From TrEMBL, chain A:
Membrane-topology descriptor: Peripheral membrane protein
Listed name of the protein: Iron ABC transporter ATP-binding protein
GO cellular component, one term: plasma membrane
Localization of this protein: Cell membrane
Family: Belongs to the ABC transporter superfamily.
Alphabetized InterPro entries for the sequence: AAA+_ATPase (IPR003593), ABC_transporter-like_ATP-bd (IPR003439), ABC_transporter-like_CS (IPR017871), P-loop_NTPase (IPR027417), Siderophore_ABC-ATPase (IPR051535)
GO annotation, biological process: iron ion transport
Length: 250, 327, 319
């Protein structure tokens, strides 16, 4: 589905991405893991064309993303950034509705409203729909941003640490929603810091370290004590709980 | 525009329009030469006065108020800062610089040429300011107006320097204070451009709202962010230039009107833009009447009235919110 | 290289020598008449320039120490518009005749007192109460500036042309014809202020760390801030009465001071502010009047350069 080939990016002498090549399988959840500063967010931004790489290219369905027209790309791929501070005083429903912009250029049809309503319910925002964003808590605002992203209805959805600010219950629910959307044909790339969420919900894992791909493969192949300990340079133990691998570090 | 006030109940909307018409009508009959609705039928002089002086004045007040409020709103959206406005963007000083340059180099230029060239320099000046501001960090709210004032000071110093050489110093004060008393037939035509741009901005309301979410978010939604920035910049610069050249600098309209509407109705421009346009016109109309009545038969320029009224409203806006960043 | 090192190590000394030379050049350059006559004519102006430069430079430095910000100056916070408003309203309420016939000395002390009280009131509210909310503090200062200017504008509208001319004359900076009658008082006031500031220079070093830190280190913050503000107000009022309002001179001086100074200690920053202030003002005057023989006033050039320095500082530090 998404393929990055030899992505390289240097910013003022620091190599942020060094010949990164990854394959994101279609209709799966791919988790992007790795220590701080590994280049995960940058990789995501480069894939979504928010940051321009020095060399290498990104292919979406075997077509270079530079060939896509802006709105066309927005219909195929959406990204949730880590720090989406929104200064505008918008209502939740207004914000989520803007997710439909690549499809309707601001002219809302009944079908757009249906999508918006459904996403609002998926993220338990229907009761908050008429509230202004600046009156919401951090977690509620995060959910509103997620909802806007899902309303965009792109085939590939990139989420940069979507669990930030979410409580345990909403974090779990988000991952279930992600799974649910995979069932409807979507492909996800999610930056996760909690390895156990990756273990439980990801089909495929890309581990990054110091701007390079450290390891990539299906979840069971990455969940390996030696590999993870090397990745984070800290002892990590893997235990099985109810048949699922859990990474422990203490 | 009227139809899109529909976020309010229809009767409120009609009330609002009725009030604006009523005030505009009333303001036609405020002035040194006595003019009453009755005298229009009997006295040909009265009809002439209305057409040549009073009507142009009310029209220019409405056009200026509307377009400056909208320019302020668009500017705030583009630089994601609630405290910018056209009056503190060096536009006034740039226009004065233009006028002085024309006077120096094309002494016999017609009024239209002067205005046209001053609009060009104001456009360049405002554009440069917006480019500078885009390089400032979004979080440091206070920097933008501060930079605006200093920037205006620098351009003003260049203008004063040239004016000194040409003995035109006294011109500067006159051009920098917004005033409607000179608005007679044939003097305010440029303002229609500003009015047209204000209407045009409504068709881009959604795009501007998306741009206000920030560059990355806008690009994620497939908006051509740079094109939007360019359109907004040109729109703001032209409106500012045209109003400065015809009326002068009026502080605070572009600041307080969008801020008040934002508190009340939020920032979805599709809903808030018509209200901003309306409130801008109404507030300017009121301030203009106040300026004409308060030391009758003399007149206080509307720029000074706004300086006082606007300062208090802005202080109120600043202190009634928990923190300046959210004001 | 050795020479440069020498200059660096003894920068205050070098600068002092340079500034004194400059002052002498100012006094004697191009003089072909009797020396005594020229001294009588130029010496008061020179003293006036030195006093104004010292007052503006040091007060800006103090203001930046108090606000913890290196781009703020008293004039950016509305101080100058307050001065112009005061001038305008005096003429407005007393009429020209009273104003002109009023003794120069009484006028000076009246203005000084009023200006000090008003600005201490204004700035103590701004700086002390709003220290935690920087944006709000600066925006308030800016709004006050516009407010004062608009009220002055309001008043000038109702004035007779005569009154207006008096207002105009007192609201522009002038460096070439300094009010000699005030020179004695002004010198004494500014020198006293400078001595007082120098005495508390160690405390100022602690104040520069910010309110919380200063209180933590046992400084009576509010008391000291009040004292420093009063000194700032007195110095700015004196300088303004002497040469009229100058917006960017202080900023120009302090940005040079921070660049030249080897330490952040006020014991070194304070004398440097005085020296560099004189350098800019007297040096600028010599350069413009005598070397380039330009007709433009120094104040315009200073406004221009100071403004450009400000923009440069902001764009460089905030990338």
């Amino acid at each position: 589905m998404i393929r990055a080939v030899d992505l390289t990016l240097t910013i003022s002498g620091h190599t942020i991405l060094n010949k990164v090549s990854v394959d994101v399988p279609k209709n799966k959840v791919t988790a992007l893991i790795g220590p701080n500063g590994a280049g995960k967010s940058t990789l995501l931004h480069t894939i979504a064309r928010l940051t321009k790489q020095d060399s290498g290219q990104v292919l979406l369905d075997n077509r270079s993303i530079t060939d896509f027209e802006n709105k066309e790309l927005a219909r195929h791929m959406s990204i949730l950034r880590q720090d989406s501070a929104i200064g505008s005083r918008l209502k939740v429903r207004d914000l989520v509705s803007f997710g439909r912009y690549p499809h309707n250029q601001g002219r809302h049809s009944a079908s757009d409203d249906l999508v918006v309503d459904k996403v609002l319910v998926d993220f338990e925002l229907d009761a908050l729909a008429e509230r202004f964003l600046d009156t919401l808590s951090g977690g509620q605002r995060q959910r509103a941003l997620l909802a806007m992203n899902f309303a965009q209805d792109a085939e590939a959805i990139l989420l940069d640490e979507p669990l930030n600010n979410l409580d345990l219950s909403h974090a779990r629910q988000l991952m279930h929603t992600v799974k649910h959307y995979v069932g409807r044909g979507k492909t996800f790339v999610v930056v996760l810091h909690d390895l156990n969420y990756a273990a439980r919900y990801a089909d495929h894992i890309i581990a990054m370290k110091q701007g390079e791909v450290f390891a990539a493969g299906d979840t069971s192949s990455i969940f390996n004590e030696g590999l993870l300990s090397d990745l984070y340079e800290t002892p990590i133990e893997i235990v099985k709980v109810n048949g699922l691998p859990m990474a422990l570090s203490y | 525009m009227i139809a899109s006030l529909n976020v309010l109940q229809p009767y409120k909307c009609y009330m609002a329009v009725f009030l604006l018409l009523l005030f505009s009508f009333a303001s036609l009959f405020v002035g040194v030469i006595e003019l009453t609705p009755a005298s229009l039928w009997s006295d040909p002089e009265a009809a002439w006065l209305l057409a040549a002086s009073r009507l142009p004045r009310v029209l220019s007040v409405l056009l200026t108020g509307t377009s400056l409020a909208i320019a302020g709103l668009v500017m705030q959206v583009l630089v994601q800062n609630r405290f910018v406005e056209p009056a503190t963007a060096g536009s006034g000083q740039s226009a004065v610089l233009g006028i002085i340059l024309v006077t120096l180099f094309i002494p016999g230029a017609s009024l239209m040429t002067k205005m046209g060239l001053a609009s060009v320099t104001a456009l360049l000046g405002t554009g440069l300011f917006l480019l500078i501001v885009r390089r400032l960090p979004v979080q440091e709210t206070y920097l933008v107006p501060l930079v605006g004032i200093v920037y205006g000071g620098v351009v003003g110093a260049v203008a004063t320097w040239l004016a000194w050489q040409a003995d035109l110093i006294q011109l500067i004060d006159i051009w920098l204070t917004g005033e409607f008393s000179g608005m007679i037939r044939g003097r305010y035509d440029f303002l229609w451009i500003a009015g047209a741009l204000a209407v045009f901005s409504y068709f881009l309301a959604d795009q501007f709202t998306i741009a206000s979410l920030g560059e990355d978010q806008a690009r994620n939604l497939g908006l051509n962010y740079n094109v939007m920035m360019a359109i907004g910049l040109v729109l703001v610069s032209i409106v500012t230039a045209v109003t400065v050249v015809t009326v002068g600098v009026i502080p605070f309209i572009g600041l307080i009107v969008p801020n008040i509407v934002s508190r009340w109705r939020g920032d979805n421009l599709r809903h808030s833009l018509p209200l901003v346009a309306y409130s801008g016109a109404m507030l300017t109309l009121l301030c203009d009447v106040v300026g004409r009545v308060v030391i009758f038969p003399y007149e206080v320029p509307v720029g000074s009235v706004f300086g006082v009224v606007g300062a208090f409203i802005t202080l109120w806006l600043l202190y009634s919110s928990p923190s300046a960043k959210r004001a | 290289m050795i020479y440069l090192n020498f200059l660096k190590r003894f920068r205050v000394l070098t600068l002092t020598v340079f500034v004194i030379t400059l002052c002498l050049v100012y006094l004697w350059q191009g003089a072909d008449g009797s020396t005594q006559f020229i001294l009588m004519f130029r010496l008061p102006t020179l003293i006036g320039l030195i006093i104004a430069a010292a007052a503006i430079g040091v007060s800006t430095l103090l203001f930046q120490t108090l606000s913890g910000n290196r781009i703020l100056t008293p004039s950016l916070m509305g101080f100058d518009s307050l001065y112009v408003l005061l001038q305008t309203s005096m003429i407005f309420f007393f009429s020209t005749l009273d104003y002109v016939t009023l003794s120069v000395h009484w006028k000076f002390f009246g203005e000084l007192a009023l200006m000090t009280v008003l600005s201490v009131l204004l700035f103590s509210t701004l700086l002390v109460r709003l220290q935690s909310d920087f944006s709000r503090m600066i925006l308030t200062g800016i709004i006050f500036g516009v407010l004062f200017r608009s009220v002055s504008g309001f008043m000038t509208r109702v004035m007779s042309p005569n009154e207006y001319a008096v207002v105009q004359a007192s609201s522009y900076a002038r460096f070439s014809n300094i009010n000699e009658a005030l020179l004695g008082y002004a010198s004494v006031i500014v020198i006293v202020c400078l001595v007082l500031v120098y005495l508390i220079s160690r405390k100022l070093d602690v104040m520069a760390l910010g309110r919380d830190m200063a209180i933590g280190l046992g400084v009576n913050y509010n008391m000291t801030a009040f004292q420093v503000l009063t000194i700032i107000a007195v110095m700015v009022a004196t300088a303004t009465a002497l040469v009229g309002p100058v917006v960017f001179l202080g900023l120009l001086i302090t940005s040079l001071v921070y660049r030249v100074s080897a330490t952040q200690r006020h014991a070194s920053l304070l004398p440097l502010s005085v020296l560099l202030g004189v350098l800019v003002l007297v040096g600028g005057q010599v350069l413009l009047e005598r070397v380039l023989q330009m007709q433009v006033t120094l104040s315009i050039v200073i406004e221009l350069c100071g403004g450009l320095v400000f923009l440069y500082l902001i764009l460089r530090q905030k990338r």
